[in-house]
């Protein structure tokens, strides 16, 4: 999370120095002195979740340096003075996991004063759900290791990342009723059984097959492709795809 490279001290100095950037001409004209005010550091964290091995899993990195050296954490890091929050999130994600070109949704901001032992740190959390088959994950320069973990069987986490992941999971569950976010975990074509499995993994409970299918088909957001696929020893199952034109029906 908030800094994972061996050059953390240098980066923290750069972060501190960035707050002393020259004022704008307008600020000078109005004699505004920003040094009179304390400045918290700002970081971004990126929660990536995917369905793997019939389980809902999250991508974590192992920290290289103090604090929490050797512990698992959400990928992320400090925001540079001259970059947007989203640009910082994408940069840190690529630096630590090799993941790039993914759509990020801003989720929540965590700012408890004691959440980071180094200094006052506020973090903006981003979130993405996707098919892990689309990713080539590797531990990049700012992480000792990178791996997938079940959201229901996590290792001890650095900082307040257990709290962050619990919040993310609860928000994800809430979004199932009014968004199409679950479709991000599926291939372009899928069966109703596969779609139900996604909902069950996120909700962490079994759903009644008949009620689920009746409800999801009634929304009109699925399009029958006309194709079928075998699922075990059962008769071939219909393949559906998400119909973007009907997204407003959820």
UniProtKB/TrEMBL annotation:
**Keyword Hydrolase among UniProt keywords:** yes
Q: Which domain of life is it from?
A: Bacteria
Q: Which CDD domains match?
A: NUDIX_NadM_like (cd18873)
The Basic and acidic residues compositionally biased stretches are 1-14, 22-34
* Annotated InterPro entries: Nudix_hydrolase, NUDIX_hydrolase-like_dom_sf, NUDIX_hydrolase_CS, NUDIX_hydrolase_dom, WH-like_DNA-bd_sf, WH_DNA-bd_sf, WHD_NrtR
Protein name listed in UniProt: NUDIX hydrolase
Residue span, Nudix hydrolase domain: 41-172
What are the start and end residues of every segment in region (Disordered)?
1-34
**Keywords, in A-Z order:** Hydrolase
Q: Which family does it belong to?
A: Belongs to the Nudix hydrolase family.
Q: Name one GO molecular function term.
A: hydrolase activity
